[in-house]
Amino acid sequence: MTPGGRVVVGVGHDRVRVGRLSCETRAWLAEATGLGTTVVHVTHDLASARLADHCLLLHGGRLVAEGVPETVLTGATLRRVWGLPDSL
Question: Which of 8, 15, 37, 52 is the most buried (most CB within 10 A)?
Answer without folding.
Answer: 52
